[in-house]
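Subject: complex prediction, re-run

Hi both,

The earlier run crashed halfway through, so I resubmitted it with identical inputs.
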Amino acid sequence: MSISVKTFASSAEAASALSGDRTARFMGGGTLIMRAVNEGDQSFSTVVLANDPALKQVQPQGDRLIIGAGVTMAQILASRDLDFLHPVARAVGGPAIRNMATIGGNLFAEPPYGDMTAALLVLDCQVMLAGGQSAALADFLRDRAREPRTLVASVSIVRPQSGVFKFRKASRVKPKGVSLMTVAAWVPQSGGRVSGARIAYSSMGPTPMRVPAVEQALEGVALDEAGIANALAAATSGIEPPTDAIASSWYRREVAPVHLKRTLLGG
Amino acid sequence: MSKKPVQFTLNGDSKAVFVEDGQNLLDVLRRGVGDLSPKYGCGQGTCGACTVLIDGEPHLSCLTLAETVEGRSLNSTGGLAQGADLHPLQDAFMRHFAAQCGFCSSGMLMAAKALLDRNPNPSRDEVVEAISGNICRCTGYEPIIEAILDAAQSGAGRRSA
Amino acid sequence: MSVEFRKELFANERDDNLNEIGKGTQRQDALGHVTGRSPYFDDHLFEGLLQIRCVRSPHHHARIRSVDYSQAENMPGVVRIIRPEDVPNNFNTLLSLLNFGRDDEPLLSSKKVSYIGEPVLAIVAGTDRQARDAVAAVRVEWEVLPHVLDVEEALKPDAPVVNEVYPNNTFDYHDKYDHQKLRYGDVETAFSQADRIVEGRYQMSPIEQAPVETNGAIAAPETNDRFVCYTSTQALFFSLGTAAKLLNVSSNRLHFIGGTVGGGFGGKVDSLVEPMAILACMLTGKPCRFVWDRQEEMQVGAPRGGERWYLKDGVMNDGRIIARQFTGYFDSGAYTRLSSYAIIKGTAHLPGPYHIPNVKADVFCVYTNRTPATAMRGFGVTGVDFAIESQMDKIAHEVGMNPVEFRILNAYRDGDMKAHRREAKNCALIECVQVAAEKANWPIRDEFKQASSMVGGGGERAKIPHTVTDEDGKIGERRAGRAGAGQTRTIAPSTPAPAPAAYTPPPPSAPPAPAPQPAAGQPAYAHPAAAPAYQPAAPHAPPPVTPAVAPAPPPAPAAPAPASETSTPSARPVNRPGYSRFASNSGFRRR
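This time it finished cleanly. Structure:
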């Protein structure tokens, strides 16, 4: 069927158009939807856009930040409020992609994409939908396959203190390369010991995910080689890494502890 | 199939075309406007051969919905030269043998121009990052990087767009 | 740019007044490239240009029970459906241009498909989207067949028949053998006299050329009932001749314009897009465009074929290789195309640029249910060279020799007889290796620095030795279960082979012991005897005459097992989120 494009001035109108049309999808920056259009994807035929300025806003709110779903990677890189996210935004695509790809769109990206989403998972991200509902990001990811017509209005994340947030994307080609494995870590310390760590991967499963086994193994340890040994041993515990064109499941299992270690300790 | 009118400037010239719903900018530039300089390499956003500048910033025209460039100012490699005078980047590409099959060159030049217009004196790392979204299968990238650094030396970034 | 000229090498054989080399001559199309004006095939505008897309097989191997395009042909924008029966001469092989091999490949398949992506129908429509929508509406009933993806598996008697024109899953060489033979000297006797035997198994996966410009062609009606065809081909006359044959028109009705190729590397020689574009143009009277998208370029576009090589060398303690045996398997994929020729080219290359007085090679062109293979840089030779040079390093390591000196020792020299019975002339391997060692600061001893391609060759080394021949591996024998040449061999140490369709990782192994590095001023390698002239094998009784094998009639092609879903068809829906998009149907590369 031929494509039809509908542009709305507000996300509320766009959300309404989406919910009323099973053949509709929302387009943010176009990096996912236009690829599908170019390839003749038969699962949708209406593309919905919203020129809502609220989608492009970044609002600090106490120790949190509200980021409009339409904020691009380039905008993140230009925002001082979001300086901790710069290493993540820089890891997404190349310069042209960064001018187009949105933080909201990244929530829907299938593996091996989704690096920003892995970072958001450890930043206590809440996803705010256009209708007003909100969901924890992990719940949103679990449900996203069933709900491709959801319109995300913004995401809310906590602003990390210096040194707590760590991020590493492992890829074969640098600086721009598809992720073989991405690690995001939130490792607050108290009295020289890790307390309440959050660890997330992308490209290691059907969606970016938290890794409870590693988080538990980090509880109360010192952030050094000896302290994280158990966490490294548990690097792929409970995880089935995929085999794809980038790497085999076996390879991902082999290198996961290496990349996890480099994320936690640097170098 | 309905068509929408879209007006924009391309390389300083005003353009008006009718686009189909869902038509991407690459297709509109090539077949609607007749600017054959941006190329199709993947349709997925991985190769960069379709790179054009929208308001001075690099975008992938194959992933851009044509109707969203209403009122914007576009640049393509076809308009890089000033009349018969080559842009310093074009001259540098030739002197450094930075084009073999030439298919990536259009996109590379756009990425390079965007860099130098914003940052007239880039480091080598900055050049590498600027072209990181453009795939070349022929040159191994070194001649392209050398050409861009050379063009920066000769003041390409200070030249008006 | 600066070029270093080593004018002292072969100085009296050359005139060193160089007019172009080292001068940095500009390409004639450089200006076009940087201004965006170089005319690639797609840079031509036509009013009313139609777009072509194909219905393609999602299975490695399947019979086509039915193709229902009744819905598709009525969809908006659809101008014409092209079916197999619409192709005037729907059976060809690329090298029929040289009268080599039998026609084996349709432009559009009607009976069965033998690789993922094989086209069965083409749809011509006003826009690309309309063509894609129509393709999605075509219903094909497939009967999935067992498939084979590994070259050695394909040679087993019970392997599925991939290509019905070559039912033994091997190309027929000289109407006699299922492989190409090279015989020179007597390897078996030499092996028995060698101080040690070194074996190796080497494999190269298929490699996609991946040019930035995909394969494509635009055809349009021209004056005098001709058709103009703009094409991305690297092989303009191949493409013109192939189009003329498939479409049954005389070639003077075809006006081919090529020249600017957006990267080829060998991947734009198969000439599949031009005949389709011209045929659509003939049938519709309109300009027609057939361009592969990136998915097609990677999946359907022919890669360099994978290869597997077994090498066995007989080596003396002083480092001389006195015998070398090859068993090589080229993976041609489902159809022949250029692979039959690749084997001949590769075999002529053996045993590599070395003087080895006993050589035996059996090289197979094998059909598997993979994407048909084609040329890529160093076509026919690159894969076996990788095997040869890896083996050379392996042998050097085993005999404790500096691998550079080892190569100089065994290098061919002017006047040596080569295994394909031509005298080596203008050899330069030794000099290249010497200069490379110098540039790499890799120490070699003075006598090796002084070696020369012009010294030490010929004489005894120029004589063609008595050669043992055989008639093993006649066409059909292998398939009928009668053992012949080139059987699967195990070597020591054996490397676990990955399963063809589902990758099974090998257990983690200890890294190999590092090759001894020459310490400064102290060569770690045992001092070999000065490079000796070849000493022929000790005189021996002539080998017993191999009893002639009664020629067997080629067996009737085995009837393929009636299917039922023993193999899970690889799903290939048009929209492909998630993993399936990234699964390589040519197997998973070991990382």
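The helical segments of chain B are 25-33, 88-95, 105-118, 124-130, 142-153.

- K.
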